[in-house]
């Protein structure tokens, strides 16, 4: 007889799958600020299909994509899934986590019940025509973000993943450390090392927006590990200090400038003049911090609409602006003259393939990359943690919540 439900942290005998589980759930009628959108509920444990694994979640990482999920914008993830034929009228987010494999579906041979794993955040169809023809799975038409576009992410007692999302958890790492770094770390790694010939080389100046954030904290360290020179943008002194401690050459406070947002109309000479003055002053500050008059060969972008015009202007001739998000909006302007005359590259980048995930896990396991876990919360803190992220009031680096792991080392969020 199957037990119907276990309490959080009350771990069933290995391999025993209850009928129901606790989950932090978003529903369409609650779309809005994260503190209102997330609610703890009891839902059915999903069936494990061929090629899949059910993982008992120990800890889950907090990321910006579930800020978007809770807002229901720019994508209503529940309706989008229903249009693809899924029946569930709820969303369980969480695109990274750590835990123990609890059940496996037909045909799974590379992971087994009892394996301690770190979960990566993208899924694809391994038999998709483009993958069979050699495409990087991250570029496949079949690719989607687990725990955002697909359901049953890590904000629940059990997560449903494809077997290849399970990576061996290095021994000695706590559950919460293992849960917090892979999404931002591997995304930053692909941005900085995945787009040859613009992978960071020794001596390359690199401009990093949001240096104290999840992506930024990983990007500063990866740039240093490659011999590059990271210059980080922040919005206060505490964040600036944090970036310098991680290895930034120096920082720029973006609040000292006001030329942000979309470009003025090309015919509005006065506004264009003010914008040009602003962006040139920002460029001079970059030189000051770098200590020499060189432009960034790589600009790590994710802030989007407010900063893309500056990124494209500042980027070196034949350099690259590499972007993985649009925190401030996704309707950004580019003065195309700088793109073609100076032969710059604007490169989209999205999470990471499995090789890149393994490289980043290795870097953390061997001490080359600090996971930058700044805060560990409890299961009921999921909404609050996303709300602070939405308001840009969250702690530096990466954050995690404990799901089934013992509740030690919790810190409070103000
Ligand atoms: N495509 C992917 O695979 C992928 C993966 C990870 C993340 N992302 C996206 O990347 C973005 C950042 O993620 P994250 O985890 O690093 O988030 P995060 O920890 O919240 O960091 C974002 C940083 O952006 C900075 N920021 C806020 N408003 C800004 C503005 N107006 N101009 C410039 N910077 C601003 C903030 O730093 P300051 O206020 O100190 O400047 C903040 O620390 C999100 O939109 C996320 O969805 C995409």
From TrEMBL:
Keywords: Acetylation, Cytoplasm, NADP, RNA-binding
Gene3D superfamilies given in the database record: Medium-chain alcohol dehydrogenases, catalytic domain, NAD(P)-binding Rossmann-like Domain
Stored Pfam families: ADH_N, ADH_zinc_N
Name this protein carries in UniProt: Crotonyl-CoA carboxylase/reductase
Subcellular localization: Cytoplasm
Domain Enoyl reductase (ER): 32-401
Family matches, as PROSITE patterns: QOR_ZETA_CRYSTAL
